[in-house]
Amino acid sequence: MKSTSFLPDYSGNSIVNLMSSIRAIYGNDHLYPLLDGFDIGPFKDKNIVFIVIDALGYNLLMEYGDDTFLKKHTIRKMTSVFPSSTASAYISLITGVAPQQHGLIGWFMYLRETGIITSILPFITKAGGIPLRNIPFTDIFDQDTAFTGLDAASYSIIHKSYANSQCSASITKGSKKKAYSDIKGFFSNIENILDSGDNRKFIFAYWDQIDKIAHEKGIKSNETLDELKKIDTEISKLALLLNKYNASLIVTSDHGMVDSSERNTIRLSDHPILNDTLTLPLTGDPRVAYCYVKSHMEMEFEQYIAKNLEDCCHIYKSRDIIEKGFFGLYEPNRKLYQRTGDYTLVMKKNYMIREALSGEKNKELIGIHGGLTEDEMFSPLIVI
Questions:
Q1: pLDDT (tens digit, 9 = 90+) per residue, 329-339?
Q2: What pLDDT does residue 1 have?
Q3: What domains can you pick out in the chain, each with its CATH number?
Q4: CA-CA distance, 187 to 203, in Å (whole number)?
Q5: DSSP secondary-structure letter at 357?
Q6: Rg, C-alpha atoms of the chain
Q7: Is residue 55 within 8 Å of residue 367, measured between CB atoms?
Q8: CB neighbours (10 Å) of residue 155?
Q9: The pLDDT of residue 3
């Protein structure tokens, strides 16, 4: 694992810039600059199948993807966003803007609108896992999507387990949603859409199995690498149909991953002095934690981190990293300052920090993401 930190390059080499280029292919406007050096001309009159493979990091593909169809057609690497978390990066891909605009900045978020710390994508409470059915997700998230105003028939393909969630309804608006239950259904949906008529199409298809398996087994585990081979084989079959449907295939990921262990896990329960400085539980992700600190204990908080956790994490004032552009360019979402707390801890190497709340299903993790290492921050750009 390479531990040097890499910030997102929102000016021309991030997954957000790729989405600007895709919108430009269809003649639509976009907030962020186009992807540097990516010629959109060859795509102008084609249908586009855009597959997002969650957690397929560039380094993983380069190191473990020998003889794969995907590696053969990889043309470059791009940065993810900050944090390099599904809740931020996947949302950036499906909206076409950075977390600076869409405001979803981690798996766990303190929502002032509700006064609740929430697992944002399933939209349940962190403590107890209670569904927030009576709270409109539109109160939390009001960003347009990449499908908005697109000059094409737009489709989103997502797993049936969350296809009808409040979050999915918001992030897929402007598209016709198709659900799948397995890999056969995933690719059948794509082929059926391509075969459905002569109108121009944009298909956004999200595959989450590498991420799910790697969280439990590790990003370099046999199980994860077997899943990579499986999706690679099916994509190579899909590629044979592209000419028939006048289509191009673009594949990327939202982020990469690193493997960690219990030895590299900081448990807040083991640091009662640190815990006493906080007004709220930790939010964010195991690799990026947002800390809400008692106003009279900021010095104690900083000193404790410097003395006890300096080898494990970088400490930033959250306002500073917003203003330095970690989350994106341009005017920030007004809710960003509320959602990032007072301080942000970005974990070094393969450390993570965790806090379990009452009634929380606190699964053990091996594969993790969210940080700024090369393994987490770079996604492949694959074009067929």
A1: 999 999 999 99
A2: 46
A3: 15-258+373-383 (3.40.720.10), 262-367 (3.30.1360.180)
A4: 11
A5: P
A6: 20
A7: yes
A8: 23
A9: 57
